[in-house]
Amino acid sequence: MADTWPELALQSEHPVEGMRGGNLSGLALCSGELWAVSDRDDDQIYRLDTRESLWQAEALPVDVPPAPESGLPWGVRMMGKAISPLRGGELDFEGISCDEAGNRFVVSESHAAVLQIPQAGAPSWLKIDPALVRQARASGMLLHFNALFEGIAVNPQGNQIWLAAERERRGLLTIRKKQSVWDCENGCVLMSEGGLEQPPTQLNAKAQAKDFADLALFEDKLFTLERMAYRICRRTPNTGEIERCWSFANDALTDARRYNTGYGNTEALSLDAKGAWVGVDNGSHRRADGEKRPIVWRFAAPQGGWSAKQ
Questions:
Q1: Mean of the per-residue pLDDT values of the chain
Q2: Which CATH number is 58's domain given?
Q3: Could you tell me if residue 15 is inside a domain?
Q4: Residue 119, phi then psi, degrees to nearest 5
Q5: What pTM was estimated for this model as a whole?
Q6: Tens of pLDDT along 62-98?
Q7: Which domain holds residue 134?
Q8: Which of 27, 78, 2 is closest to 223 using CA atoms?
Q9: Contact (CB, 8 A) for 46 and 58
């Protein structure tokens, strides 16, 4: 694998106003509109008004039913419950995706569950075979509190979902819809890997656990946002194998855009033919230039497009 990947070019930067809890943690392009979630808000998702340089988040209230039992062990669930009053969001929404029918799918990290929000009608939790969590844990994933599902991608037909396990170990899993239940068919786990990754030299930080921060499906390929490495990678949907990566460290880690943290802050990814939207979850941190709102960056697609061999 290449040690250095080509750099994406930053086209624009958009602060986001109106997200009640801040903490933009997921992005999805649905019928030409950008949608976002915050891991601090359990009762609303956001449509982004992108007509001006400063974006406005418009809240869509969501009446969320009680979360289902997913098979996570008691200790992991209790840690999530204990910390939720401090962080503001008990469900910990970490990713959003949508199908061509307009259904939006939101992944709850703390419950390892997926909420479906239809165009019309009541939201409901997907009925997911407990084998998903069981197989993930048997492969070394979903063992640690706050290191569970961090990204979601849904195919246009709305009958297959990919999920990204965040770190220690990170991995990719998939489930398919069979009548009313989403199951593992030939196994849920596509890949699982541990190990450390050296952050870009601009961070001057020690190696940290490999991670996934979000997922996107575009042109029948999976794209992973790799927060610690400051890159986007194209992967084979059936195996999770890396085909090609692109770095965005040069433009993301300029002096003015730096946060005083030793880790990556990008949490959200969405792609189209012309480029990538990358969302920054800055928590309560200010950038070196004083900016404290969530940020979305627009990077131009690489030469030849996202599917190019070279």
A1: 92
A2: 2.120.10
A3: yes
A4: -60, -40
A5: 0.95
A6: 999 998 887 777 666 666 666 665 565 789 899 999 9
A7: 10-300
A8: 27
A9: yes
